[in-house]
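Project standup — Tuesday

K.O.: blocked on the structure for the chain from last sprint. Re-posting the sequence here as requested.
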Amino acid sequence: MRWRWRAISLQARQLLAASLGLIAFLGLTGYALDRAFTETAQSGLQDRLRSYALAYLGGMDITRGGILLPPEVPPDPRFNRPGSGLYAAVIGDTIEWQAPSALGQTLPLDLALDPGVERFEGPLASQSEGENGGAGGQPVYRYALGIFWEQGEHAFTFFVFEDARVVGEQIAVFRQALWRYLGGAALLLLLVQVLVLQWSLLPLRRVERELGRVQRGEAERLSGRHPRELEPLTGSINALVRSEREHLDRYRNTLSDLAHSLKTPLAVLRSRLENGAGEAELREEVRLQVQRMNDIVSYQLSRAATTGHQLFAAPLEIAGRAEEIVRSLEKIYAAKGVLCEFEIDAAARFHGEEGDLMELLGNLLENAFKWASHRVVLTVASHPDPAHRRAGLELVVEDDGPGIPPDQVERLLQRGVRGDERVQGHGIGLAIVQDIVRAYRGELSVTRSEELGGARFRLYFPPGL
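H.V.: unblocked you, prediction finished:
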């Protein structure tokens, strides 16, 4: 059952939820209106029966002998027509009277009220006195009023009854009309809901079609024409597609570069073998070419280590990792006595792979330690943006070394180029930094430090989704 529920489409889920909500709302609305109409009808009936009772009392009289004289003209002609459904009666200690309409009826007169007390209730059972012993009676509503007649000091209860079918028929007609209209409204609203769902889900269907085109290779990315609620999704999908393609391109390029770079030392070895070089000479050549191939493989592996932009990576704290790298560098460059200072924003976080962060910090700090005279400064700042969930990140490494001439910056960022050929290294550290920054859609700038006078490397990663 759980699997089947998951298999239901979004449109079916929305339609089902809307239908249940609509049915519940209309059902409660219909019930409330039905109860309100019923109570209103009964309240109107009570007022009408009270007016009949007061009209009777205003026109009747009681003789000295305790005989009740009703008015010559009753409040309603039905009081004079037997079985009309409208009845009146008086029950007291010494007085009893019933209107002509109560002939043949056994009314519920089992109630005695104190003077001034009134009561309305119903429907109550009544009986019709006929051949079946009263089996054909209809329920009635009863209004009773306690009276004390000062002339003669008579106490009695005045009753007015009306057939419950009158109110019942009114309620039945109202209910039939109510549920007919509510049913029509429900069908109309369901139709409108279907049309609204069809219209509101059009962007999702468009995204689905575009994804299909991307999967078939007919398009390179999703279009940017989507509602703002879908922009984080489509933006992430586009970034993921772009990142995966960049990864694939980088791996292909790395393998191609590795194969191309190994051709030369292999060709040299083959040439030496074919030329019949001596054992000592061949041994030395093999040693040199193996060392060269080892350097080439190390270089390509370092290049492939830049994993690139990770869309859903957890935020990484920077201070602890920077301290770990600096401790190692201080041991290596202990003879120089370089002091590294930190100015790190506690809220700053790197959103990406830990290996990429270590590569960035390691290469920049090692380069600074290598060229610094005495001081290195690492500055990390966070740049929040209300329009994005992920703050921007600025990372700056400065040293007091000789610095880098502006006309040499572009050349030094190329792979395999070293600032000083006499200094040990492969010349790929800054190139790796540039590749990682580019993969994370960041910016790398190299200038002169105004405070220390040496090189200043600034990395900036923009806010993200």
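K.O.: great, moving the ticket to review. The first helix runs from residue 2 to 7. Residues 66-163 form one domain.
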